[in-house]
Design goal:
The complex is a heterodimer of chains A (168) and B (128). Chain A has 168 residues and is an alpha/beta fold. Chain A contains five helices and five strands; from the N terminus they run βαβαβαβαβα. In chain A, α2 packs parallel to α3 and α3 runs parallel beside α4. The radius of gyration of chain A is 16 Å and the shape is globular. Chain B is built from one helix and seven strands; from the N terminus they run βββββαββ. The chains are: A alpha/beta (168), B mainly beta (128).
C-alpha cells in the first residue's frame, strides 16, 4: 500500500507590500534553497492556507497592517496580522513565528498573545525602507529556523515532494 | 588535512571578485553570522554573511568543496549549516567533515551545533 509523502516544508509570510515580498522572496531563495516560500496578502488567505498546510510549515513571519489589493474589486477587508496571531494562539505551537511590522503597539500585542500560548516568537521593526530585510529580518529568520532543528521531531520529506521550483 | 570531495561550481557563474573581507577561518573570529566556503585544497574561508555572498567568498567563479553558514558565539561555533543557495551542498557527511576542518583551523563547534538542511526540503536535522 502506497503512503502519501509528507508535504514539502514552507516558509510562510503574511505581507501585503509588493516591494517587500519581492525582496523577501529573493533573500529566502538564496538562504533557504530547499524550502518553498508562500506569501499571503490577507489574514483570511493566511488562515486558510495555514489550516490546510499546517504540517509543512517551518516558520511564519507576520506583518500587521494590511491594505486591500489594488486589483481586488470586491472591497473585502484584508484583516490584520493580529487575526493570524489570534488564530495561531489557539493552536499547538509547532514552529517559530516572527512579527515584522512598523505598528509597534500591534507588534507588542501579537507577541504577548503568542508568548502566552507558548509560541516561540521574535520581533523585528522595519527601518530604512527595505534595508532591514537583509540586515535584520533574514538573519533573525535564519536563526529561529536553525535553532528549531533541536526541537524538531518531524520526519524528512521525500525528494519527490520537494519544491525546488524557486531555487536559484 | 581535509579529505578530497567532489567540487561544485557556483550556480551563479558570474565571476565576482572575491570579497576583500574573505579570509581563512581561524581562532579569534568576532561573534556574528558568517558565510563560509571550503576551497579546492580544503581550507575554509569566511566572510560576514550578507546578500548573495557565497559566490564572492572565493570569487572568480571558483568551485567549492563545501559551503554554508555559521554563527560564532564567544569564540565558538554555536551553529553551522549547509545553507547556501549558490552551492546547495546536500551531503551530511560533508558538513561533519567541514566542522572538523574548522576545528583544525582553530574553531570548535559546540555539541549540537551541526545543523543539516536536507535537499528534499525536510526539516533541519542536528548531526552533532
Amino acid at each position: 500500500m502506497q503512503t502519501t509523502p509528507p508535504p514539502p516544508m514552507t516558509i510562510f509570510i503574511l505581507e501585503d507590500n509588493a516591494d517587500r515580498t519581492a525582496v523577501m522572496d529573493r533573500l529566502l531563495a538564496d538562504k533557504f534553497p530547499f524550502y518553498r516560500r508562500k506569501f499571503a496578502r490577507s489574514a483570511g488567505e493566511a488562515i486558510t492556507w495555514l489550516t490546510e498546510h499546517w504540517q509543512s510549515v517551518v516558520a511564519v513571519s507576520l506583518d500587521h497592517d494590511l491594505e486591500p489589493s489594488d486589483t481586488d474589486q470586491s472591497g473585502c477587508d484584508p484583516g490584520t496580522g493580529r487575526d493570524v496571531s489570534d488564530f495561531l494562539s489557539g493552536r499547538k505551537a509547532d514552529f517559530p513565528v516572527l512579527v515584522h511590522t512598523s505598528n509597534c503597539s500591534a507588534a507588542v500585542a501579537m507577541e504577548a498573545d503568542l508568548l502566552d500560548a507558548k509560541w516561540s516568537v521574535s520581533r523585528v521593526m522595519p527601518f530604512d525602507d527595505l534595508q532591514w530585510l537583509a540586515a535584520a529580518w533574514l538573519p533573525l529568520l535564519r536563526n529561529v529556523i536553525v535553532q528549531s532543528a533541536a526541537h524538531n521531531g518531524r520526519t524528512a520529506v521525500p525528494a519527490s515532494a520537494a519544491g525546488m521550483d524557486h531555487a536559484i | 588535512m581535509a579529505s578530497r570531495r567532489d567540487l561544485k561550481l557556483p550556480l551563479d557563474s558570474t565571476p565576482y571578485a572575491a570579497d576583500p573581507r574573505s579570509r581563512p577561518a581561524q581562532a579569534g573570529l568576532r561573534d556574528g553570522l558568517y558565510a563560509y566556503v571550503q576551497d579546492e585544497t580544503g581550507v575554509v574561508f569566511v566572510v560576514p554573511d550578507g546578500q548573495h555572498i557565497h559566490p564572492k567568498v572565493l570569487g572568480n567563479g571558483r568551485p567549492a568543496m563545501y559551503a554554508g553558514d555559521l554563527t560564532i558565539d564567544e569564540g565558538e561555533i554555536s551553529d553551522i549549516t549547509n545553507l547556501s543557495g549558490t552551492f546547495q551542498f546536500d551531503d551530511p557527511d560533508g558538513l561533519c567533515e567541514v566542522a572538523e576542518q574548522f576545528k583544525r583551523q582553530g574553531l570548535i563547534a559546540r555539541t549540537g551545533a551541526i545543523r543539516f538542511f536536507p535537499v528534499d526540503g525536510g526539516p533541519p536535522q542536528v548531526l552533532g
